[in-house]
Amino acid sequence: MNCDNAKFIFFFFIIFLCANFAVCNELEDYVEKSVNSETKLHKLADFAIDWAHNNGLILRTKQFLNKSDVAEFAPVSLLPSPFPRHAFEKAVAVHEANAREMEARRTIELSNAIKAPSLAIAISSSKKIQQLLTTPGTLERFFPSATEADKVAAIRETFTGLWGLEKSDDQTERRIKDAIENPANYVLKSNGECGGNNFYDEALAEKLRTMPQAERASHILMQKLIPMATKNYFLRPFHEPKLNVVVGELGVNGTLLGNLHDQSVQHNVQSGHLLRTKLREANEGGISVGTGVGDSPYLF
Questions:
Q1: Quick one: which of 205, 240, 225 has its CA closest to 278?
Q2: Keyword annotations for this protein (predicted)?
Q3: Is residue 124 part of an annotated ligand binding site?
């Protein structure tokens, strides 16, 4: 059914925030101190696996992808990973919306960039839109009042460096040159990115050297984040729990239910969060592909 004729639309808005802080001394070894024996480790691991099965945190197995009666638990961390409380609260606070902020979201929905409702979710979550929102003055279009300056500043604090590549001006060419010479400082992201379509390190430099001008517009450059590292055990099916050095990415989720005809909002809530954790040396952190696990924040 064409979304133009649909009465309701669900709009999911996710803010990803990675923190870059030194681990507090008392938390640096908290996992090892909490799990101080092999007996305790395996007892906790067995309990966590049982909990995952009992609460539906399961996936189909690779051997039986077409069968729902054979399942294994989704990869998870054994304990919550330390995460800065003020960074967590900042991400949550940015997502909270009042009536005026909802009007700003409605304006975004009706803007030229995403005027077709069938494209709203795809466009609003694209890397290009994320990059455009970081350009000077863009947020102020949606929060024009001087009383909203603190809100704009709070949102902007969650941004990292993002650069478009579609132009051929000196500024863009200098940024591309720096990325080729220092690829470890950047990530090259495609608008089709959903895990596995990013470029890192030498692959990033080679892609920029060989990328046709016409292809640039479908990619952005992002400043590579160096998130806080901590330790945790990963639980994976048929593997012994292993203590790893890990980093996490926080997502805050919300749901909007509205009427396209009269532009009214029936339901708008912040519906939770997810901390997705991966090995520190891993570039991609997808749970389904095996490089990341589901986690919970241990706030400090």
A1: 225
A2: Metal-binding, Nucleotide-binding, Signal
A3: no
